[in-house]
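quick one before i forget lol
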Amino acid sequence: MKKPGIITIDIGTTSTRAVLFDSAGIQVFLSRRDSQPTYHPDGRVEQPAESWAALLPSLLSDCAASARSNDLEPVCIALTSLRSSVIPVDREGKALHPAIMWQDLRTEALCRDMAAHNAEVYGICGMKITPVMSAVKMRWFREQTPDLFRRTWKMVGIHDSVLRTLTGRFVTDPSLASRTNLLNLGTLDWDEDLIALFGLSRSLLCDMIPPGSVAGGLVPSMAADTGLPAGLPVVSAGGDQQCAALGLGLTSPDRIVANTGTGSYLLAYSARPVFDSEMRVFCNAAAVPGAYVVEAGLPASGVIYRWFGEHIYEGAKDQGCAQVDYDLVNAEAAASPPGAGGLIFLPHFKGSGAPHFNPLAKGTFHNLDLNTTRGDLGRAILEGIAAEMADNLELLETLTQGVDWVNSSGGLSKFGLFNRIQADMYERKVRRAEHGEATALGAWISAAKAIGLYGSLAEAFAAAAAGSPTEEYLPDSASVEFYGRLRAARRALYDSLYPA
């Protein structure tokens, strides 16, 4: 008899991954396809709305073939994805416009016009009005493309769109909805006052289902294209950051998660909504039903290190993409001393996130001279990202509770130097789980509970964590003191460039 397997689909900003797990949460197979948005010079960030659906057949076929060869029977598909992107669709589900991605800045002026409502909005949904959130993008469609808006049946996110492709249903869950500026954190349902404020209607929004619940069964057409059975349960596991938090065991308030992908996020657990009087952090519905994740984010981090490698290092070109030797990039950054030869870096390539939320902030290298090496630049980038995250860690601890250690995950966490820098910046122990696919693992945990493989999310996490090797990085007292001074200098630099 075949053993059960779970396929997770993890849609990120620059790639989509399908991961096959066994019933113990062990990764058996991973299939990945790049899926890059287009960054326009005027701040628009778009991607063809069909991009993700087009990748599903090959990704799922790969996992189905691996399941057969490993004597596993897929028992469900779990979906997790990036948040806050918007696609207008007609009644047939056809996209009427490219997806406006979460980093898109076209709504800056509209956000400024609505700034007087920030306290009102934050007090209901736990988030200010920023270009990242979905509702202001929906309002932009209403004001700037009225004909298209009249033809729109639903305003959906990427997650919602992919669920429709897999199951035939347009549904979403609170973990995704909490990134729209339209969810009431108390009721975990759409809020009529917020919907009215943005000039929208509830009929434009997807029906709500709990995170970690079955959205529907795999449609016959997708089953035929992938070799998976029709009707296979499809679970909405939740937003990518919430699933990453779950995959790193964020099920209690005694730990904080640092997840660094395209952007960086410091995540803390709460059993109740958390509101900051200065509106410096966001509160999201968690992938754990009825719980919340308090989040302080940096819009650009790992993507900056990628930009650095592709533009500063010469790499072979493969289908127009630079193939960079990141072993060399990392080695040169590691050879640079702490402080990167005096460089200070502000990682605001897509504006600043928490605590400033300044979409007009720009990336900055300060103190360049003729002795600066590209290794110094690389290390300064890592230090600048970690310093920004350290500021956000301190902020989260004032709103939740102090912690003794931080779980590190995401692409940059695979680089040991970055984890050491984090430990010194945070003055905390940093742990990194060896599996590295925390978001996909969180989706597995959600699905394993949903289909009854385990009785609780904590039980599923414990099964996956059993025997999983973990790297630990301890802070160095001398480096902690040095980085404390560096962080103060960074804050002074930011304040001089962007006075209040």
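fyi The domain at 3-250+458-465 is CATH 3.30.420.40 (Nucleotidyltransferase; domain 5).
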